[in-house]
Amino acid sequence: MDVLFIDPPWIIESDSNLWKTVGSCLPSLGIAYIASYLEKNGYKPTILDCNCERIAVSGISKRLKEYESPRFIGITATSALINNALSIAEICKKIFPDSVLVMGGVHPSVMPDETLSSKAVDLVVRDEGEVTMSELISGKRYEDIDGLSYKKDKKVHHNPDRKLIENLDDIPPPAYHLLPMNKYYPAIGSYKRLPAMSIFATRGCPGRCTFCYRTFYGRVRKRSAESIIKEVELLHRDFGIREIAFYDDTFTCFKKEVERFVELLLEKKIDITWSCFSRPDHIDKNILRVMKKGGCHLILFGVESADEKILETINKKISLTRIKETVRDARKIGIETRASFMLGNPGETEETVKKTINFAIELDPDEVQFNIATAYPGTELYEWAKDKGYLAIRNNKNFNMSDINMELPTITPETLDKYYKSSHKAFYLRPKIIIRRLLHIRSFAQLAQEIKGFLAILKFLKKPS
Questions:
Q1: Domain range for residue 457?
Q2: Residues 117 and 257 in one domain
């Protein structure tokens, strides 16, 4: 085995996180893409998904002993997972002392010095890892590999950034055959049928919001519709997938590709339903009709706040009037909508929180999700909060969008937490929403998820504030 990739377990310790119950469990497509790229170049990777297999850090030693010693071990990590990832790295080094341990993912990419301060970590692959990992496994000198950070002579060295991959069609589909496909599931309320799987049609985002990772924003690279269809066909044929969740930040960035994708989907008579993320400034009635015809049943829009000043501060360039029009148009065409909001952005007050909750009710999408604004390393928001002394990060455990990690002078943590919990009650326990969701049920799978979701909300609301 050339490389063993490990996806650490994501354990939400906070009882105040609604998504602990209703959230999804989907694969890390980043490592699955790297694995497929390595296979294309003749290498032999393996993937261990601790998250979906429910393998805790305390139980990973037993599982690791089932493997032969790999040449390389690659562990991915977000800020929420970095503690678990580093603990697993230490265990790996004890069991496989001769393996080169590589960390990748968002957190190691933006915090390579911190990550490499662990004695267990040998290298950090920054940002896109396909080419970097391939060159690493090929035996190329560390000094000559772009996108690599490493330790030498008791110092940390950072090679130049690697140029982003321009033609995404050059990358084969994720190595689904290396994943436990029968153990994944989407978020409650996001699907019509099962089994379901996530896909990326693009990389990057056209927005420049202060709360997002800066490396990939401001530009978007696309896959061709033909490439996407091949992946959908693979999932449908080999794994029985009936529902696709496009996890692109803005799936409708390239409307012509979306139209071509739907054209091919209908031409090949592939029986799937699907959902996606978008922005109101990248969608219109025509593309909504096309998407509906192709099986799209749900679109998620990130609204974040109903206060214009806060939207300006976080550089979220959307029009509240436009989002109202888009939600209305989607409903008329027959596509459900989910709106996402963040409470606790810079400048937030009790009044602006109330304004956002009231706007969500007025907007009246089919679903909403309220999150706590979270300052992640590698974002402008993090640098701002750090500079102002507002960070309240507790051992990387409050990166879950439900626990407060910024203490602002304009609103107390207690007030913010109170409205975070009451916001879901204000929206979901309205008779209008309950009746609408019941009327939309068309299958046993939908009925099951509605019951589970409703019980989760009731349980969440019983938690003390």
A1: 186-461
A2: no
Report pLDDT for 463. 57
| pTM exceeds 0.90 for this model | yes
Which whole number is the average pLDDT over 70-80? 96
What are the pLDDT digits (tens) for 34-52?
A: 999 999 999 999 999 999 9
Same domain, 190 and 152: no
Could you tell me the CATH number of the domain that includes residue 376?
3.20.20.70
Query: Averaging pLDDT over each range in 22-26, 265-269, 447-451, which range is the top one?
Result: 265-269
- Please indicate, yes or no, if residue 135 is contained in any of the structural domains: yes
Do 142 and 255 fall into the same domain? no
Q: Is the pLDDT of residue 280 over 60?
A: yes
Do 230 and 330 lie in one domain? The reply is yes
The answer on pLDDT for 425 being more than 80 is yes
Mean confidence (pLDDT) of the chain = 92
- Work out how many domains the chain is built from and give that number: 2
Q: What percentage of the chain reaches a pLDDT higher than 70?
A: 92
Same-domain pairing of 326 and 432: yes
pLDDT in the model for residue 86: 97
**Do 210 and 149 lie in a common domain?**
no
User: What local confidence, expressed as pLDDT, does residue 121 receive?
Assistant: 98
- Kindly state whether residues 136 and 236 are assigned to the same domain: no
CATH number of domain containing 13: 3.40.50.280
Reported as a pLDDT band with limits 50, 70 and 90, residue 224 is very high
Q: Are 149 and 191 part of one and the same domain?
A: no
Please state, in angstroms and rounded to a whole number, the distance separating the CA atoms of residues 348 and 352: 6
